[in-house]
Amino acid sequence: MLVPELRERVYKANMELPEHGLVKFTWGNVSAIDREKGLIAIKPSGVAYEKLSPENMVVTDLDGNIVEGDLNPSSDLPTHVELYKAFPEVGGIVHTHSTESVAWAQAGRDIPCYGTTHADTFYGAIPCARALTTEEINGEYEKETGKVIIEEFAKRGLDPLAVAGVTVRNHGPFAWGKDEKSAVYNAVVLEEAARMARYTEAINPTVAEVPQALKDKHYLRKHGKNAYYGQKK
Amino acid sequence: MLVPELRERVYKANMELPEHGLVKFTWGNVSAIDREKGLIAIKPSGVAYEKLSPENMVVTDLDGNIVEGDLNPSSDLPTHVELYKAFPEVGGIVHTHSTESVAWAQAGRDIPCYGTTHADTFYGAIPCARALTTEEINGEYEKETGKVIIEEFAKRGLDPLAVAGVTVRNHGPFAWGKDEKSAVYNAVVLEEAARMARYTEAINPTVAEVPQALKDKHYLRKHGKNAYYGQKK
Amino acid sequence: MLVPELRERVYKANMELPEHGLVKFTWGNVSAIDREKGLIAIKPSGVAYEKLSPENMVVTDLDGNIVEGDLNPSSDLPTHVELYKAFPEVGGIVHTHSTESVAWAQAGRDIPCYGTTHADTFYGAIPCARALTTEEINGEYEKETGKVIIEEFAKRGLDPLAVAGVTVRNHGPFAWGKDEKSAVYNAVVLEEAARMARYTEAINPTVAEVPQALKDKHYLRKHGKNAYYGQKK
Amino acid sequence: MLVPELRERVYKANMELPEHGLVKFTWGNVSAIDREKGLIAIKPSGVAYEKLSPENMVVTDLDGNIVEGDLNPSSDLPTHVELYKAFPEVGGIVHTHSTESVAWAQAGRDIPCYGTTHADTFYGAIPCARALTTEEINGEYEKETGKVIIEEFAKRGLDPLAVAGVTVRNHGPFAWGKDEKSAVYNAVVLEEAARMARYTEAINPTVAEVPQALKDKHYLRKHGKNAYYGQKK
């Protein structure tokens, strides 16, 4: 096999989704990329989690052509491909229909940064990318979904590793990271930040985002050269 | 036994309801029909899930007369019978009192199609059928429940396999499908779509349904001759 | 031992509370009464569920005096005693601080009958008994809690087996039944009806109770001489 | 080792946090203090719960200097240290990002005392301490967090064992107690009281706190020399 270690990592990351309560049935997928070899491994489409194995992950090139594997790749592959092309620092991507994140996507609102749980991982609000146009929906839908995300990040001038997630209007969340492991972590935090924000607004409908100083503090204590959370590596 | 394989399938489908968190106590039932033989298998009434077996499913004819079995069938059998008679494509039916779906039934509102999770399975809003009249309540109540559902679908011109579920006002959800397995799947999606819709309106009280183009896209990518989700059969 | 079978039943019923998710820590208790012998068995106070056994249940007389047992009975015993005295048909009582029921108690509102899940078990709204006065709080508090419940049922002319539960303002739910088993069942339904009612009002803030004909139908199909739900006994 | 028994207790208390559903990933920490020896044991920073052991707890002095241990202590240690210095009766401290408590912290509101579940443990509203200033955020952040809590308790004249918890604006909950075990208990109650208060306001947006007499009754039946809940020690 071409990339047995990549298959193994992607398999494991996919199996974490149901453990974290992020998926029902087959509604989620994780991919990772080997940038040197130009190969992506991704979950096959519509296969139950209990039937997944490192061997049935699908390996494609950066244009989404199957290089190794008998099954169809996740139908969201073209979205992953667009993101890998546009965001060269990204090594892993997660898509789910997790309940709380979908609710913000359906509501069409950014998830505001209301506290340090959010700020420790996402540097500011988690954007809700615009709805696709009818032309985009009827064209290469999954590819256009990726393009809409990229457009949103470009328009807002966001660093995709500082805000490593998004919801797409009417659809649901995508999260990513330097590898598939951090992508899953970020997907879990996105869901929890979404839940906390919903509760927060119920308790105080006129609440404001946290001050910029707090966003800076919490993001930078976990990221970058002055990070001091956790153990020295 | 007349239909051992049907009993087995209906037993298994019933056991999936508590696994998916759709029932408390005995508040749910699944049936399936063998159209060729004209026989329905359904859960017995008020029997705990841990005591169910393929053998104690109740087999009836299309008028609801017991053909094989010592126990009373689910008291909702007459609703199932009406639906099987009116919807010839339907092979399995589920009724539960799952929390989120019941909330919409009690609120007396259709569940709007706010996103692709809903649109992948249900082609448009999930209708809330009207309340029964006093006469209907005091008459053949469970049979009238079925008739009210059929009336609602006729009035709206809905295809029962495109919108394979409903809530009945003041009562709760019914879902169905080409077989008992897809009926259970649809009942799970109905519950999740109901939950997501409640959250969505809490976050954005003036949210609108998704555009028609998105409904078309998502429903048709999973259903019909141009479906491309999952593996080729 | 005086009533080994009663101890066993009460022990088992207490153990069902955490299984149904109705209690945290030691916040709940079940009792049952042997009317012929005039003896009550109840959970000991503040003992963890994993340390309960039939042997450490506390047996008291109808005035709440310990007849058998080394431990203090639940501090809520005087409430149970008042209810047993006032409601001679009642054989078992449950008190918990289950989340959804407490929320209605804290909100100071009856739980409206919004649907058949509620109506199958409770014949109409589940009352919220008034808050205790300062004198009652500073007097025999737990006994006065029982009296307030009895006063509420008398004032409203309610049959305690038709509406086999209540919430006490600022406090939480009590449920009961002909025996401890039905009392636990009713406590679970009370909690679920409370949850469904909260969701229902979120979806439709101006929703009304179900019509009387539906209350009659659902209550009477499960209770009384014309009941037809379940298996013939 | 200096304080093997303290390490053991702190380890066990940390392991209770995920069991009670209060933490995701590594987002929580418990410490305890041996007042005689002037030593604190606390969870190491960013270490997964399944890798914790009594041996990898970090032991520090009352200025937060590591006395024994190879790992970095929780980054929240300076908050714990401030609280131990200011509240001499406190023997254990818990910090989490539990969802419901965080929501009140993010909403910037005290958790009102709406019922006896709250009143049994917390003597009145659970305060939301003010947001840190930009100077405090950019200074010794975690130490300042402790100071803000202490300031809040001083300003309100609160007894830290009568109200053994707080939320810090935009951040989350801290709870404490005479030892680490009661601190965990209080953190669980804080979370449940927060959940109940959210639900209560959804059901009745104009609800008021319970009367003072009820606060007195419930707190004092479990605390102080006239307590009568539970078994005599």
Automatic annotation (TrEMBL), chains A, B, C, D:
Gene Ontology MF terms: aldehyde-lyase activity; L-ribulose-phosphate 4-epimerase activity; metal ion binding
Annotated EC: 5.1.3.4
Keywords assigned by UniProt, alphabetized: Arabinose catabolism, Carbohydrate metabolism, Isomerase, Metal-binding, Zinc
Xref: InterPro entries: Aldolase_class_II_sugar_metab (IPR050197), Aldolase_II/adducin_N (IPR001303), Aldolase_II/adducin_N_sf (IPR036409)
GO BP field: arabinose catabolic process
Cofactor(s) annotated in UniProt: Zn(2+)
Catalytic activity annotation: L-ribulose 5-phosphate = D-xylulose 5-phosphate
A Pfam family per the record: Aldolase_II
Pathway of action: Carbohydrate degradation; L-arabinose degradation via L-ribulose; D-xylulose 5-phosphate from L-arabinose (bacterial route): step 3/3
Gene Ontology, cellular component aspect: cytosol
Residues of the Class II aldolase/adducin N-terminal domain: 8-198
Class in the EC hierarchy, top level: isomerase
Job of this protein: Involved in the degradation of L-arabinose. Catalyzes the interconversion of L-ribulose 5-phosphate (LRu5P) and D-xylulose 5-phosphate (D-Xu5P) via a retroaldol/aldol mechanism (carbon-carbon bond cleavage analogous to a class II aldolase reaction).
Cited PANTHER family: FUCULOSE PHOSPHATE ALDOLASE, L-RIBULOSE-5-PHOSPHATE 4-EPIMERASE SGBE
Family classification: Belongs to the aldolase class II family. AraD/FucA subfamily.
Name this protein carries in UniProt: L-ribulose-5-phosphate 4-epimerase
Organism whose genome encodes this protein: Streptococcus constellatus subsp. pharyngis SK1060 = CCUG 46377
